[in-house]
Amino acid sequence: SGNTNGKAFAEQLTEEGVDLGWETRLVPFGKEIGATVYSAGFAIRVALTFGGVKPGDYRRVLLYNKNRIFAFVLALGEVTDEKYANAAGAINFGFPTIADTDIPSILPRGVCTYEHVVPSIKREEIVSKGIEVRGLKLTITEVPVPIPYGPAFEGERVRKEDMHAEFGGTKSKCLEFLYTKDLAEVEDGKIELIGSDVDTIEPGTAIPLAIIVEVAGRDMQPDFEPILERQIHHFTKPELYTEYLQPWHQ
Questions:
Q1: How many H-runs (helices) and E-runs (strands) does the chain carry?
Q2: Taking the model in full, what pTM does it have?
Q3: What molecular functions are annotated in GO for this chain (predicted)?
């Protein structure tokens, strides 16, 4: 709902060729900011229908939406008094506001799970920031790698004459190291290659390999580091054309 300089969310998506509707979960409620009330009304109806909440029980409506409806507000462009009021209403449902402008922040926990208002977020990062602040847990259904990936390839054997690169074992050194950093220091999905890529080396070469992983999370603890580090083995086994032994072959 709402618009900035006369242009609304639905109009921007339509110009970019994005389909709107329930199938894509992109449903415009109105061009005016007051239409935000329909989104809030939808959240209330979910609490009444599926949560057994009685009409007028605002406390249970808040708790149900805070714990079960993982919504958040993206405040794009100038925030007027009317937009402030609508965002405040969303906060009363446990839905935080993420803005791309320099508006006053409300960081302490309370009504929302984490922060209430987070300002000055870059537009290319605003969705991921909203996911973080709201506490969503996402499941990746398709691993973005250039080779087939799945349980069917676990335990695959690579013949010596087909082997392109070998890491670890008696011929080279190989290690995995995972450590925790602050949330602000970690860029989600960033991959940095230092050294030669496998397609630039001679087939059958044994070279050193170090996998360094930086992780961050609101509930991350040092005790989790060795557990996550061991998962690196689990994540590499389903790759086609890769045999995980000790050493690694590819």
A1: 6, 11
A2: 0.75
A3: anaerobic carbon-monoxide dehydrogenase activity; CO-methylating acetyl-CoA synthase activity; iron-sulfur cluster binding; metal ion binding
